[in-house]
Amino acid sequence: MTEVDPVPLSRLTTLRTGGAPARMFEATTTEELVATLREVWADGDPWFVLGGGSNLFVGDELFDGTVVRIRTTGIERMPSPRPGFARLRVQAGHDWDALVAYSVEAGLAGIEAMSGIPGTVGAAPVQNVGAYGQEIVQTLVEVDLVDESTGEVSTVPAADLGLGFRTSALKHHYGSAPARRAVILSVTLELAEVGHEQRPTAGEQLRSALGLGVDDTVSVGWVREHVLATRARKGMVLDDDDPDTYSAGSFFQNAVVSASFARTLPAACPRWPVTPDLDPVLVIPLSAYEGYVPPPAAVESDVKVSAAWLIEHSGVRKGFKLPRSRAALSSKHALALTNRGNATAAELAELARYIQGRVQSEFGLVLQPEPVLVGVEL
Q: In terms of CB atoms within 10 Å, which of 65, 127, 197, 213 comes out highest?
């Protein structure tokens, strides 16, 4: 492990806020990462791990603890037990978009719609990252991780990670601790071997975003190229020359609400049904069976609604900023809070609270932040 001179986290996070930590380590191998984390945990100081810094909102004060930068990289291609599929085992510090580029070049499908998402591979399952209808839960097989409570390394199947909409058992939700305090070391995905031929594109949300019909056929490379262009138009691809990209991406989550609540929102608000959990198996004791099986109860699906639409229709438009503030909504995308030049975390938090208040007042819904907040309160 390597201890390095601490630098302000404003230099290492895409929102460009945050003071320096008391200590900072870098780990370039899995062995270094595990050893560093065990030492940090043994000391008992506050800590967090840092990958690409694209999903962190860090406060202005110095962080009185340890930051561990994960710099591990590498992709290992492995056979899959399923014909027509391949598995990729990827180190946690590997750049996410570089992984997507690798998979597309290799003719593997399943994560191409998530092109351009900033950050590292290890952060992807924590957030269950997704875009245009694709989520990592759809292709994730397992992760290797190290648990804080024991310091032990284990392989955990995706089904045991509590993956849901932009969440997992590993995520530090605003105002609560994760269900499992652990750090991902590597991620294994299973992707379809489709080559570079044109084929129909699955998913209404992705087809709509790319202007495709149900029967239109395109290659995975075409999808990646057009997703990157779409994200760039929204300021969602990092660019040092574009202050609209000085953000943590979508600052607020698209809200998942009940079908009955969704009906109270204006019909124009974009919405997508969320697949409900399957009902448990009905077991009728043989002694009680009377020749009749009751029909399953109808269950309405929850609904995902557009936070960007709610923000704009609460009166907060793209480019909005509070007086004398250096924080503003992106001029291209209503979900991105941006640092327009040396904005403090306090300025960004003030804008976030204002937006939350406007949406709650107009629609009765409290938007939840998507980034992990360190030393910041909303």
A: 127
166 is catalytic: yes
**Residue 66 parent element (H or E):** strand 63-70
Among this protein's residues, is 154 annotated catalytic? Answer: no
Tens digit of pLDDT at every position of the chain (378 positions): 689 999 999 999 999 999 999 999 999 999 999 999 999 999 998 999 999 999 999 999 999 999 999 999 999 999 999 999 999 999 999 999 999 999 999 999 999 999 999 999 999 999 999 999 899 999 999 999 999 999 999 999 999 999 988 889 999 876 678 999 999 999 999 999 999 999 999 888 899 889 999 999 999 999 999 999 999 998 888 888 999 999 998 999 999 999 999 999 999 999 988 865 545 566 667 676 666 666 666 667 899 999 999 999 999 999 999 999 999 999 998 999 999 999 999 999 999 999 999 999 999 999 999 999 999 999
Please say whether the beta carbons of 67 and 24 come within 8 A: yes
Instruction: Spot the catalytic one: 69, 71, 166, 358.
Output: 166
Q: Is 377 a catalytic site residue?
A: no
Residue 233's SS3 state is helix
- Contacting residues for 184 by C-beta, under 8 A, at least 6 apart: 92, 122, 123, 125, 126, 143, 144, 145, 170
Name the active-site residue from 250, 306, 314, 330.
Answer: 250
Which residue has tokens 């938090």?
Answer: 349
The rounded radius of gyration (Å) of the Cα atoms in the chain is 22
Buried b (16+ CB within 10 A) or exposed e, 113-143: bbbbbbbbbbbbbbbbbbbbbbbbbbbbbbb
